[in-house]
């Protein structure tokens, strides 16, 4: 197959730190390893869409509308990965809003756009059953939605001997954009300060007030350590040596970083809110992200369990390697093209 990938214009500014860019890059590498050609098309090129077997759009927005219409008119099959990460799953209000024809007033509205794109594109890919339900709620035909889980994002090659041969440090690790309210880091830090377990935090902090708060916590509670933004090699070291990885998000579409940590053999404590459970199933402890007691109890339980977690390592390696995800995507493309 010859496939064209088109990313949201925003990705050119978010660059390699964008989860959308990571998802597209991982799938491109997997498909190429399976013998297909994937082109990242550019607006600066002359593009003959009919030379591609299909065109795959990543993320959705008003920029998609004219392109989808042109591709449909040209008879080129189109796939969209809308990548929905709302604060909460779509429900009745989203369903009602999606039915209002905002475009008649030259207005753009997210759920309405998804409904319209669902009618235009050939297939929509969901990353989890939760995302699939959100798409159905806003009117995307169920027959057009295919669930294709995404892969771990790193190129690490880790075997059971490796994860069994490292000494764990007894710490809880969390990595994210720490100041983003959805990541729920404040609650995690407050629970660590109260219960005294070692907490190591990696990632960016773009909010000065959050940075000042975290610095004060570190000064008062030596068990809390901010590591800064981590390189891939630093991330690997932290994930191989931590005892528990915690993702307490108020809502998490997938939680790829938890997959990476599970691949490294850490015990996992993750939020019930979102699609992470579709990926980890019984291989994690789940918490109510609004309840500090639930979070603290789960972390202490995880810290008392034996390490490494070989079962979660095997699960992630089997189901969510780049090639495993790429094969599922290859099947979705093939079923669409007949």
Tell me about this structure.
The chain is 43% helix and 15% strand. It is an alpha/beta fold. The longest helix has 16 residues, at 322-337.
Keywords for this structure?
alpha/beta; six-stranded parallel β-sheet; globular; 338 residues; 12 strands
Could you give a short description of this structure?
The protein is α/β, with parallel strands linked by helices and 338 residues long.
Secondary structure tally, helices: 15
Task: Give the beta-strand count.
Answer: 12
CA radius of gyration is: 21 Å
Q: Percent helix among the residues? A: 40-55%
Main beta-sheet annotation? 6 strands, parallel
Order of adjacent strands in the largest pleated sheet: 2-1-3-4-5-6
Separation, N- and C-terminal Cα atoms: 12 Å
Secondary structure: elements and pairs:
Blueprint: E1 2-7, H1 11-14, H2 19-33, E2 37-40, E3 54-58, H3 64-73, E4 78-81, H4 92-98, H5 110-120, E5 123-126, H6 129-137, E6 145-147, H7 160-164, E7 172-175, H8 185-195, E8 199-202, H9 208-220, E9 224-228, H10 232-241, E10 244-247, H11 256-263, E11 267-271, H12 276-280, E12 285-287, H13 292-303, H14 310-320, H15 322-337
Parallel strand pairs: 1-2, 1-3, 3-4, 4-5, 5-6, 7-8, 7-10, 8-9, 10-11, 11-12
Helix pairs in contact: 2-15, 4-5, 8-13, 11-14
